[in-house]
Amino acid sequence: MDDDLLLVLSTYVEILMTLSLATTTLSSALVKYKKLKTFKRKLGHRKERDTAKQQAKRLKTRPRGRRIPRQLSPDTDIYDRTGLYAEEFFKLLDELSHDINQSRNHGPSGTHRVVPTVLSADVRLMMILEWLRTYPSMKKLARDYGVSKAFHIRWPAIESDWVRASDFENTVAAIDCSTHYRNRVHPRQADYYRFDKKGFSITAQLICGLDGKIWRVDFGNGHNNDSGMVELTGLKDVLHQNPNLRNLADSGLSRGLKQSPCEIQSRLRKTQCISFRYPERPPERIVSMVMDTTA
């Protein structure tokens, strides 16, 4: 008899505890519902009171969410687009993903320009390989990959427009250095080594007129770069003594001694200046020099 009574009492207590918990949960849910309903009502009244200008200002000041790059679809036929099997494509992606994702450096000041991307690294690599394989137009690439912008470099088509835009008529000569590799080893081989060229070479500095005739050729050890050759040959002092002598040259010459296409970028109305100093570039650098579809 006592055992039955104890069982009934324990069941009764359990039921009371369950009811108490359910009541607390319902009460909390009701409070939250009332707060949400009040907030929506106030929000609706506030929107009715606000003018169109105030609403636009409030929407403009809202923080934008982080943009998620578009990923590669699993149904994409990689071989049809790139000519590579999936295993080869992803192996290439592993090797180039760091270079594709890193910030780009286009400005003459050397600052890195970080841009938000709408395409993931694998999609951008596929776009690069498809462009290298079939060479479609920029508009077609932008349409196929869902990119809103496609840019290309606009060069003047007429010689007179080129000369007028670039101010090249004020120049008198063109100066540049070239690298010539050598394989012969001797005790002074270190003087011919240059780190960025990864080899032993002889540096040749060439000066020619605007008509293409060669005026002067100087040779130096391979460790000398463009600015080093200018000082070694005494050309730097000559240019400083004659500031009106403007020369076509790249960034190897000191500022103020040369006229380069990078300095007249705005007048040529192009998106970026291409540097032809290094002929061997990875695929993502090739496309970054030709188009910008990640902005």
Please describe the topology of this protein:
Blueprint: H1 2-49, H2 52-60, H3 78-82, H4 86-101, H5 121-134, H6 138-144, H7 159-166, E1 171-181, E2 193-194, E3 199-209, E4 214-221, H8 226-232, H9 235-241, E5 246-248, H10 265-268, H11 283-290
Parallel strand pairs: 1-5
Antiparallel strand pairs: 1-3, 2-3, 3-4
Helix pairs in contact: 4-5, 5-11
Overall helicity = 40-55%
Largest sheet: 5 strands, mixed
Taking pLDDT < 50 over at least 5 consecutive residues as the criterion, the unreliable ranges are 106-112, 262-283, 289-295
On the 0 to 100 scale, the average pLDDT is 69
- Number of beta-strand segments: 5
Number of helices: 11
Number of domains: 2
Q: What spatial form do the alpha-carbon principal axes imply?
A: elongated
Radius of gyration based on Cα positions? 34 Å
Coarse structural class? alpha+beta
For the record, give the distance between the C-alpha atoms at the N and C termini, rounded to a whole number.
82 Å
- Report the order of strands and helices: HHHHHHHEEEEHHEHH
- The portion of residues forming beta strands comes to 5-15%
Q: How would you portray this structure in words?
A:
The protein has 295 residues and is of the alpha+beta class. It has two domains: 112 residues, no CATH class; 109 residues, no CATH class. It contains eleven helices and five strands, in the order αααααααββββααβαα. Strands 1, 2, 3, 4 and 5 form a five-stranded mixed beta sheet that branches. Strand 3 and strand 4 form a beta hairpin. Helix 4 crosses helix 5 and helix 5 crosses helix 11. It is elongated and about 120 Å long. The protein starts with a helix and ends in a 5-residue tail after the last helix.
